Amino acid sequence: MxxxxxxxxxxxxxxxxxxLVLHGGRSRGxxxxxxxxxxxxxxxxxxxxxxxAGRGQIGVAALRYAVRGWNGDEASPLxxxxxxxxxxAARHPGVPxxxxxxxxxxRVALHLADDPRVNAIAALAPWVERPDRPLSHxxxxxxxxxxxxxxxxSAKASRAMATAIEGLGADVTYERVTGDTHAMLRRAxxxxxxxxxxxxxxxxxxxxxxxxxxDRVGQDQHRSR
Length: 225
Hints:
Blueprint: E1 5-10, E2 17-22, H1 38-41, H2 44-54, E3 58-64, H3 76-91, E4 97-102, H4 104-111, E5 118-124, E6 141-147, H5 155-167, E7 171-177, H6 188-204, E8 222-223
Helix pairs in contact: 2-6
InterPro entries: AB_hydrolase_fold, Hydrolase_4
Pfam families: Hydrolase_4
Protein name: Alpha/beta hydrolase
């Protein structure tokens, strides 16, 4: 049977926070996740960006799920991530945790939004389905980003989920990334820096770096508290 793996791209001896990076996957699939698969490789630059934004204060962990699919009611990657959270919390007790997930990884992160150990989430082009319930807890910060020409996951569904979580009292930012697709390649630098800066800001309480002028977001950015 395939097994999930928790890796540490950036280890910090006494971190002030830890970010767990969650890759995407498929609706169904019981094949083992391999390190060379696109969904896994796509998250490497995000792990690097978080480490850079953390300036030596944020440890970065990356989870490789056991299998590639969500697999209906089994929610396969969710069980893997719950175990990874326990391992991170045991390694660094009491340290705030951030989640950064793309697509299926974004769905996983939103399913863990009620875990009080999770202080901040960056959900990138999250896969949201009708049965998914909004979850939150006091003090949660959530960034949802979605490409304006994403044809793989629904921007409308992710916006509705962001609004519902805001209604539960979370600090929510929804951002439409103009001109980009599900793969996040056309404006990769913006995706990396924006999500990493957001997590560093809310996990460390530091000012968020300015968005580069050539990477400004679309007019329909939504911000609320």
